[in-house]
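Researcher: We're teaching a course module on how sequence relates to structure. For the next exercise, students receive a sequence and then see the predicted structure as tokens, so they can try to spot secondary structure elements on their own. Here is the exercise chain.
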Amino acid sequence: MSMTKKRKLPLILQLLVGLAVAGVVFFVLAKAGGETVASRQEAAPAPEAAPSASDRPVIPLADAFPEKVPDGRGGNFTKVGAVTLKSCTEPDSVGPALANMIDAGKGCLGEHVALYKDGQNNQFNLAVFTMRDPQDTVTLVMRLGGNPTDYQVGAQAPPPGSGLKTLPPDSGMVQAFTGQGRSMVVGLAQWADGGTRDYQALVGRLDPLLKDVSNRVARHEQGS
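Model: And here is the predicted structure for the students to work with:
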């Protein structure tokens, strides 16, 4: 998948290589004797998808991604930018495997993406895919979460003036998935310098933001 195509959007998408953390199981990758190994820690299961009318509008962009979210450390995540994509399967926003899974289902109503930073300029990407059928959401979360080193969702290059670096493709990254009704929420996180270290700590940094956005999406899906 080529992630170099420039968009007429506030955010440019690029695929980065790093560590994956599944929404149902956490995988912490480390180098051991020159080989990559994964240690598995059981986590809470992804929320079950609840039935929802396929004609209900997707969550508004601003409702999914507030300007600030508490980071659980006395500070805030600050939104750098957000955009609604033209489709859920644009080749520079998702990988071919995810695009094929979406096409094989009953359809996708829309995809929102956003980029946040914390007080140390670590970068946090969020994507919300809203499917027509909540069962498709369950399938996506389970399949993507079951392939912890397969990167099918693009990270966003920071816009000018954000104070953030555009990180190189070999930067470390963690990712996590949750299912909320019809919607799959994907969270990606990277250290400010793109370092490949302390992945579990990076998971902890991502968690409050992913939970906040997931809760907002869940309330929308529940009609509350």
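Model: If you want an answer key for the exercise: Helices lie at 61-64, 96-104, 134-145, 199-221. The chain has four helices and ten strands.
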